[in-house]
Design a protein that fits this description.
The strands form two sheets. Strands 1, 2, 3, 5 and 6 form a five-stranded mixed beta sheet that branches. It contains four helices and seven strands. The chain is globular. Helix 1 packs parallel to helix 3. It is α+β, with helices and mostly antiparallel strands.
């Protein structure tokens, strides 16, 4: 069985949508991802992020790899060059970009300001890891991409500098 993979990162669009919708979505994608992240960063009192095309391209390559293999797991840290990474997956076309990012932001309900990894009300830093990467104070750039199979959307965001570093303050 051959899968048709659609990919969105800055100028690329999901392949099964009409051409006009593809170009509109591709044109809006970076701004919408950035706005969703920066709204959360503003609420947390940290500086906004800037879009980085190189991070977007790296995210696109990895999103496509996930979509092709179906292996939903973080990439090898040693191959990310000091960047952080958030992953999301869901039913194709069922979630807006804002809802995807909102899933990560919803982890703030468990967040407790402190020194990483002691930043979760649950006692498990993994319960807030997507959120803390989003609001990490020394992260300044982001690039994201969306790849799709006929049934699943995969969102990958890469962050520079990486967050979630032990012994560093958050919030």
């Amino acid at each position: 069985m051959r899968l048709r993979i659609g990919l969105t990162a800055a100028a690329l669009a999901v392949s099964t949508t009409p051409a006009l919708a593809q170009s509109s979505f591709a044109a809006q994608f970076p701004a919408r991802i950035l706005a969703a992240h920066n709204a959360e960063r503003s609420r947390a009192g940290v500086a906004p992020l800037a879009w980085d095309n190189a991070l977007g391209s790296a995210a696109a390559a990895y999103a496509q790899q996930i979509a092709l293999t179906g292996r939903f797991e973080h990439s090898d840290r040693s191959q990310r060059g000091g960047t952080g990474e958030n992953l999301w997956m869901g039913t194709r076309g069922a979630f807006s970009i804002e809802a995807m990012v909102g899933g990560w932001a919803s982890e703030k309900r468990f967040f407790a300001a402190g020194t990483f990894p002691n930043v979760s009300r649950s006692g498990d830093w993994e319960d807030v890891a997507h959120y803390t990467q989003m609001i990490w104070p020394t992260t300044t750039r982001i690039g994201c991409a969306l790849a799709s199979t006929p049934r699943i959307d995969y969102l990958v965001c890469r962050y520079a500098n990486a967050g979630n570093i032990d012994g560093r303050p958050v919030g």
